[in-house]
């Protein structure tokens, strides 16, 4: 593997980790302050904003991958982390996130926000 390929890979993973960690923090804090259902709603509302900002930074400064590739990578990273970190170490929490509102809606919103931001930034750079 070339040095640039490794750096590019870790750049994408770092951005995916940042989005996942911030999303997990929102869920963790809101879970402590509100009911489970309301915490999941807050999480679902914050996830596209968090990943939108992360994606905006990534596409404006790096853009090593296409919007579709980045969306798939970000969602795959979140699934991996939720399954292996949350699922294996925090089993009661995993049951909470393995629901439509706890997992599937946020994953769809991560994909959509990342993809749309990437397309927007890519189109903006073509205009200039």
Could you provide a short overview of the structure?
The chain has 128 residues and is mainly α. 90% of the residues lie in helices and 0% in strands. The chain has one domain.
What tags apply to this protein structure?
128 residues, mainly alpha
Describe the structure.
- The radius of gyration is 15 Å and the shape is globular.
- Helix 1 (3-33) packs antiparallel against helix 2 (36-61).
- The protein has 128 residues and is mainly α.
- Helices cover 90% and strands 0% of the residues.
- The N and C termini lie far apart (33 Å).
- It has one domain (3-122).
- It has helices spanning 3-33, 36-61, 67-89, 91-97, 100-127.
- The model has no long low-confidence stretch (mean pLDDT 91).
- The longest helix has 31 residues, at 3-33.
Order of helices and strands: HHHHH
Low-confidence stretches: none
Q: Helicity range of the residues?
A: over 70%
Strand content: under 5%
What structural category do the secondary elements indicate?
Answer: mainly alpha
Write down the Rg: 15 Å
Largest sheet: none
Give the CA-CA distance, first to last residue.
33 Å
Number of domains: 1
**What is the number of helices?**
5
| Mean pLDDT level | 91
Shape: globular
- Quantity of strands, as a count: 0
């Amino acid at each position: 593997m070339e040095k640039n390929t490794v750096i590019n890979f870790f750049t994408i993973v770092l951005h995916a980790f940042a989005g996942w960690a911030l999303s997990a923090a929102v869920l963790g804090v809101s879970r402590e302050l509100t009911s489970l259902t309301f915490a999941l709603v807050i999480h679902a509302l914050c996830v596209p904003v968090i990943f939108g900002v992360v994606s905006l930074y990534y596409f404006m400064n790096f853009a090593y991958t296409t919007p579709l590739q980045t969306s798939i990578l970000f969602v795959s990273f979140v699934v991996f982390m939720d399954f292996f970190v949350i699922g294996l170490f925090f089993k009661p929490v995993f049951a909470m996130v393995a629901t439509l509102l706890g997992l599937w809606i946020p994953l769809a919103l991560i994909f959509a926000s990342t993809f749309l931001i990437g397309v927007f930034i890519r189109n903006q750079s073509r205009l200039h």
